[in-house]
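Retry 2 of 3 after timeout on previous attempt. Resubmitting structure tokens to design endpoint.
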């Protein structure tokens, strides 16, 4: 049986020619393990999903996603509720799920670990019909995702993401929401509404420190804005594991929820922006994805 490696050639702000280098590394690593490799390079949004579905239909034993959170999302969505596991070679701006699973940033080590790992089941989240494997959001993180993925952004990678986030902290206007979950119903005007399967956005920005990818639950995190100064002053807490100490922070463990607003809500799934309506449904799919990670 073969192993499919799907490479995003521009993830993490990679330079021209990265696809060829990445393919050579992947082929060598898989060959050393004694497997047969199939290498594919994505050409457009949605291509990774199609390639992963086709690979699963051919009966590969493993699909390796070489890219960032968006690439991982596409391939995970294709492999959800199936018996073919996902492996990750992280090369994006945040690499949230890879960090949570302890996957090395060194491609050769990540590939070797995935090839040798016994697959384990993790949960998937769903927001408005879109699956996500790590984090989805409706507040400022959705705004940042839309700006980062927009045609006007010429700077990819962590530096580009940080620059857009910094500007958003000054310009983003919180929205009013009505939220109903398994255990609570409340109204809020929030700067952050995040649904977390994993604990972090990426780069150790831990928005939901207690979230676990295999507990059968999602963490609904809401941060109400008391003032813009308070928001700015407490941003560092998101990066040092103290998110729960931010004023206005609340978190609820959920299986299902409904989020409503008077205006249509942009949202993101694993960093990929989507335009939603005035009512969004959230649910968890326990154990819906197999991952090859130790």
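Retry 2 succeeded. Sequence:
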């Amino acid at each position: 049986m073969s192993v499919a490696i799907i490479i995003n050639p521009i993830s993490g702000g990679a330079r021209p020619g990265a696809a060829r280098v990445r393919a050579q590394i992947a082929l060598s690593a898989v060959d050393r393990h004694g497997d047969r490799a199939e290498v594919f390079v994505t050409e457009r949004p949605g291509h990774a999903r199609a390639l992963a579905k086709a690979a699963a239909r051919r009966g590969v034993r493993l699909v390796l996603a070489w890219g960032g959170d968006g690439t991982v999302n596409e391939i995970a969505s294709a492999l959800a509720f199936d018996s073919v596991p996902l492996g990750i070679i992280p090369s994006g701006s945040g690499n949230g799920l890879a960090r949570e699973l302890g996957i090395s940033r060194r491609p050769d080590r990540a590939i070797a670990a995935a090839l040798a790992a016994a697959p384990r089941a993790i949960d998937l989240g769903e927001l408005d019909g879109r699956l996500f494997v790590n984090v989805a959001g409706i507040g400022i993180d959705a705004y940042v995702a839309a700006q980062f993925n927009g045609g006007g952004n010429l700077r990819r990678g962590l530096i580009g993401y940080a620059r857009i986030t910094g500007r958003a902290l000054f310009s983003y206007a919180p929205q009013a929401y009505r939220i109903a979950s398994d255990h609570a119903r409340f109204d809020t005007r929030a700067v952050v509404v995040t649904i977390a399967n994993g604990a972090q956005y990426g780069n150790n920005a831990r928005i939901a420190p207690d979230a676990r990818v295999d507990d059968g639950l999602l963490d609904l995190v809401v941060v109400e804005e008391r003032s813009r100064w308070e928001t700015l002053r407490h941003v560092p807490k998101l990066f040092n594991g103290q998110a729960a100490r931010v004023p206005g922070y609340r978190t609820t463990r959920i299986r299902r929820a409904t989020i409503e607003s008077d205006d249509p809500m942009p949202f993101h799934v694993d960093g990929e922006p989507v335009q939603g309506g005035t009512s969004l449904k959230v649910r968890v799919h326990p154990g819906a994805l197999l991952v090859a990670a130790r």
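Attempt log closed. The CA atoms of residues 93 and 171 lie 22 Å apart.
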